[in-house]
Design brief:
Layout: H1 4-18, E1 27-32, H2 41-45, H3 52-55, E2 61-68, H4 71-77, H5 85-110, E3 116-118, H6 136-142, E4 146-148, E5 154-156, E6 162-169, H7 185-189, H8 194-198, H9 211-220
Antiparallel strand pairs: 1-2, 2-6, 3-6, 4-5
Helix pairs in contact: 1-5
Organism: Pectinatus cerevisiiphilus
Protein name: Epoxyqueuosine reductase QueG
Amino acid sequence: MEELSSIIEKMICTEVAANPLEYREPIIGYADANDPLYNTLDEKIGAKQFHPQEMLPDAKTVIVYFIPFPETLIRAIRQDQHTVPIWSQYYDATNKLLDKIGKNIIKKMATFNIKGAMDPPTENFDLISLTGHWAHKASAVIAGIGTFGLNHLLITRLGSAGRLGSVVINAKIPPTSRPVSSYCLYYKNGKCRVCAEKCPSGALTTERFDRFRCNAYLDGKNIRDDQQGCPLCSSGPCADKGF
């Protein structure tokens, strides 16, 4: 039988290529559901996080997929506008695409008697702490897809401008190796602070990210439900590539 990883990767790439919107090539990685890093997330994130085995009792692998936004979108968000229609369009459409991909993976795995579970790519956070209970970004780091940047986003070899999804399955796929160094220029040499300098709310600095201040700024703009707010922390040099 064809390897599970090949089946999964073909499914994801086919779904992305068939979407009406343009994307760059997806990045796909795998984490061991028993990786000890999962036991550290509560403390690192500062809120209770689901362990893969709370998602699926006999979980063995976490499949993570990053869909990078196209150059056209990245050029648009580099114009210093705080609300960019194309950003909102891609944000909403990509969340739907990620949800569809996750459900299709679970459905396909069922044909091999493999169980799967997933959490939505968005709208899965606590309204008090403003933290999610399943950390897609942390799973992506554990799966070797990228590293955290000063912008508190995942930075991959194709940058940080994109969206993440993940699925937990009870079949073993060898884990992806992790990068040996950060993809973030600030963490590499301390010279790049573009994301912090562009943050209009002051929520992001080189010392911290204040999610409450960021959220208050977005709420205060009275943006519509179909506008996903400020993309500036995603618009620096790392928007389209890692370093």
